[in-house]
Request: fold
Amino acid sequence: MNKTKKLTILHANDFHGQISFKIEKDYTLVGGISLLSSYIKKVRREEDAVFCAICGDILQDNIQNACSKGINTVKLLNLIMSDALSLGNHEMEYGLAHLLIFKECIRTPILCANLIVQQLDKPLFEPSRVFEVDGIKILAIGVIPEHYVNSMMTDEFCSTMLRYKDTYEAIRAEIQKHKDDQIDLTVVMSHYGIEGDRLLAEEMPEDIKVDVILGGHSHIEMQKEEIINGTLIVQSNYGMTHIGRLDLDVDMQNGGISGYQWELIQLNDSLCDFDNEADGYVDNVLYDRNALKEDCNICEFAERYEHKSRLAETDLGDLIADAFLDIYKPDFVILQSGSIRLKSCGPNVTLETLKQLYPYDDSFVNVSMTGREVRQAFEYLFSLKPDGSVMNGTFQYSKGFHLVADVEKYKERGCRMEYIGLWGEPIDDERVYKVGMTKNCANKFKRYFGTVLPEEKIKLVAISTFSDLARWMISQTEKIIVQNKGRFEMLHTEYLQNG
Reply:
């Protein structure tokens, strides 16, 4: 018998419903269930022994889950076919009935050793399972902190029927139950967060031996694995952007780990191809008309935001310009103020509200312009025109952009541009910038900015701004906050005629 065997553990956590990929500034495609599924399949083809675990917060209360409460992501999880799942705090949010239905729909075993049916003294979920992978016996145990369960315990029936079993007691019981199974590796699947996992390992009773804790909940890009009290601790990032890979040499005579290498791997399109089947499922989930009900919340703003004037910088203008900056990755975005059609919106945003707020579905382009061309364009925008007008169009701008115009000498010189900069530095005349705008804005660029944009400088990056904006809002797991005010300053506006 070989003294050691190689085992590859793939682990992920905190998906939060982020099933679609994101586009980085260099146009790298990152994350999403299609790349995750493809990479897992790739590793399974390349390695003899692979164990795949997902450690909690698979669901999230956003548009991808809000109307069906996460059940529409079940088929995507089944497509991944991980070996084991454990629970996080978000799985508890919809209540016990939802959790039990979710459990029955998932093909992968859901492990949780803490929840006990009081009357039967029986675990509500499978507390652990022994997996044999290429002759290696892995005991996987799922655990969660007690305070995650409290939201369900407010229900009188649940509080009567369920009790929480201490985690050390639960781990000890599962190890004891399988003491005759010749276990080679004991893995705890946790959602305690990194601090909780450290404490869990540090205070582990001497009679309990845990080789690996696969964690979640902290939403950190862990740079290096940790070993505390002989237990190896690792966790992946959040939002389905990364996967953890732990290559182990398992001691087949005495059990445990004789050597290892761990890496946090970004999921991107240079690492592996897209899983076409998974990609098709993603589109079905995102644009499922039964899920995307008009009155279904797609996101939440931190407060009610306004767009009272097309001439001034507004909260809603900042928000949408920032969304396009995040989606399409230009250096900065110019957004036609008139494309925002509500004077106020939020904090709850439904699909129907978004259609009222931003009803124009256009393509989006990134235009290559030198700093000199950018400066000259804005000098024209704020110049006095032959017909006596100052501006032929009004705009909102993305974060990092700073524009100052002064109209004090309106009669003599028109509205003079005082300053234009990006991220605290003046625009560099020699640098080439990617300026993001809708195709409609690019088509009207001469009217607004006095020059025609050559076709060779225009790069089409998207065909549906509304769909992309909706998808972006769907993907936000926290309340959306308007950032970095002071992008556009108009001085001495009392000199402007006709408002």
Q: What stands out?
A: Residues 4-286 form a domain with the Purple Acid Phosphatase; chain A, domain 2 fold (CATH 3.60.21.10). The chain is about 25% helix and 30% strand.
